[in-house]
Design brief:
The protein is an alpha/beta fold and 193 residues long. The chain has a single domain, classed as 3-Layer(aba) Sandwich (Rossmann fold), CATH 3.40.50. It contains seven helices and seven strands; from the N terminus they run αααβαββαβαβαββ. It has a seven-stranded mixed β-sheet, sandwiched between helices. Strand 4, helix 6 and strand 5 form a beta-alpha-beta unit. Helix 6 packs parallel to helix 7. The N and C termini lie far apart (38 Å). Bound molecules: S-adenosylmethionine (SAM). The site of S-adenosylmethionine (SAM) has 19 residues, from loops. S-adenosylmethionine binds next to loops.
């Protein structure tokens, strides 16, 4: 298993709990502290390499931009954006890891239409991911981190739109999941509007 890219204070928690198959109240608490305090997904070397490979990239709904900041340090050309890069953000309440521009996702995609798009953990049952995919130009690539259709990220319109207008690119990047969560890394190329 490749190394998880987490701050030192979380290393112990992640390596012990992320592969555990059963829940306890404690797991939920640690997981939620991690998600709101650093990142909703657990970055790996292969995810960061993927972002580098598809640079230049604009990240939408970046939250605290933890993965984005690691990718930036490792040489990716990446801009992070979020609708609420401030203390009012109800999903993310830690330290911002790099500059996060205040931009709604459609505005971000349109302002940076010469970039591929990174979207991780778009809010559940919310049109944000669908509208982001719709705003992308044909030929651009979407790196998506989250659950598959019917899971707890994005909405049905997003997955239907991906199915109709994008083609999946096979990749070898992977991330771990918290127990009970089934997130993964997917790459799609937009082939029609
Ligand atoms: C669950 S968090 C995920 C944050 C980060 N991508 C991660 O994986 O840790 C969802 C983020 O999407 C942002 N967001 C929600 N609606 C948005 C929109 N319409 N445009 C841009 N960002 C949005 C929220 O402010 C929040 O930071």
């Amino acid at each position: 298993m490749e190394e998880f890219l987490v701050d030192d204070k979380w290393k112990d928690v992640i390596t012990r709990d992320v592969t555990r198959m059963s829940f306890s109240e404690l797991d939920w608490e640690k997981r939620d502290n991690f998600r709101t305090g650093i990142s909703w997904h657990i970055p790996t070397e292969s995810l960061v390499e993927l972002i580098k490979c598809y640079s230049p990239v604009v990240s939408v709904g970046a939250g605290l931009a933890y993965t984005e900041s690691i990718a930036l340090e490792k040489g990716a050309d990446i801009i992070a954006t979020d609708i609420s890069p401030d203390s009012l953000n109800k999903w993310c309440r830690g330290d911002y890891r790099m500059l996060v521009e205040r931009k709604e996702s459609v505005e971000a995609v349109k302002s940076y239409n010469d970039r591929n798009v990174f979207i991780a953990w778009p809010p559940y049952d919310n049109p944000m991911a669908f509208e982001t995919a719709k705003a992308m130009e044909v030929g651009r690539v979407l790196i998506y981190v989250g659950e598959s259709g019917g899971g707890c990220t994005g909405d049905g319109d997003f997955f239907n739109y991906l199915y109709e207008n994008f083609e999946e690119i096979e990749i070898s990047a992977a991330i771990p999941s918290w127990s009970g969560i089934y997130d993964n890394v997917y790459v799609y190329k937009k082939i029609k509007d």
